[in-house]
Amino acid sequence: MIEVKELRRSFGPVVAVDGISFSVDKGQVLGLLGPNGAGKTTAMRMITCYIRPDSGTASVCGHDIRRDPIGVRRSLGYLAENSPAYGEMTVGGFLNFICDVRRIKGADRKKALDRVVPMCSIDSVYHQTIETLSKGYKRRVGLAQALIHDPQVLILDEPTDGLDPNQKHDVRQLITSMGKDKCIIISTHILEEVEAICSRTIIVARGKVLVDSTPKQLKEQHKVSLEEIFRKVTKMKKSA
Fold first, then answer.
1. In contact, 144 and 120? CB cutoff 8 Å
2. Boundaries of domain holding 179
3. For the chain, how many structural domains are there in total?
4. Do 35 and 16 touch, CB atoms closer than 8 A?
5. Which residue of 15, 55, 179, 213 lies most exposed, with the fewest beta carbons within 10 A?
6. What residues have CB less than 8 Å from 94, skipping those under 6 apart?
């Protein structure tokens, strides 16, 4: 459902993403790992059509990011790094605005809201303005807008950032349950999260894919924890 081919993007002299390629199928939850500045967020922004690649391409549900960006955006839900939203809007007002953008109307809108509001546990703040919410609640509102049109593909940048342990557990369970029927990429620094919910792991550093495997296979191959594998692989790249 996601096919990435030789994506590359530079910002001035800095090469953020350096020719990465991978694919993700329905029923997979891919954990995208890497140190700060590895290129994870830039890769996600290219796949979701927020920035254009310098070269290479990607497709989502058969829609090419260069030739059909509208088709790509319709096919996926995207939770960005900082959950951008309009602070002066209420949670309900913001989600209704997203429904307008997604052209979800009438009975379909009510059904969508009735589904995502309890799913993301934002019932209690539905009538509050977004600027008054805690970081954790803002994150959950961001997740709700990504899910509101029930997309087949989800791209989630640090989905549990700012959540307390109970909220992290709930979101991980939600991603696990959705992962059976959807194609999901998550970026995270929490290695236990990868082990808990990801069926596959890609480790990137300096814009390149270094490892593409499953958490279980990596631990069996290296006989150490995922954290130790991550440190070893990314430090080797840095010193190379």
1. yes
2. 2-83+152-239
3. 1
4. no
5. 55
6. 85, 86, 130, 141, 145
Where the chain has pLDDT below 70, the residues are 236-240
Instruction: Decide the pairing of beta strands 153-157 and 183-187.
Output: parallel
Residue 81 has a pLDDT of 85
CA pair distance 68, 64, nearest whole angstrom: 5
Q: Is the residue at 177 inside a domain?
A: yes
The CATH number covering residue 24 comes to: 3.40.50.300
Strand order in the sheet with 55-60: 14-24, 2-11, 55-60, 63-64
Q: DSSP letter string over 159-207?
A: TTTT--HHHHHHHHHHHHHHTTTSEEEEE-S-HHHHHHH-SEEEEEETT
pLDDT of residue 238: 52
Token pair for 140: 């959950």
Kindly give the pairing relationship between strand 208-213 and strand 200-205.
antiparallel
Q: Which long-range contacts (CB under 8 A, 24 or more apart) does 217-221 make?
A: none
Residue 95 in domain:
no
How much is the pLDDT for 239?
A: 44
Q: Rounded distance, CA 180 to CA 184, Å?
A: 10
Give me 147's structure tokens. Answer: 């899910």
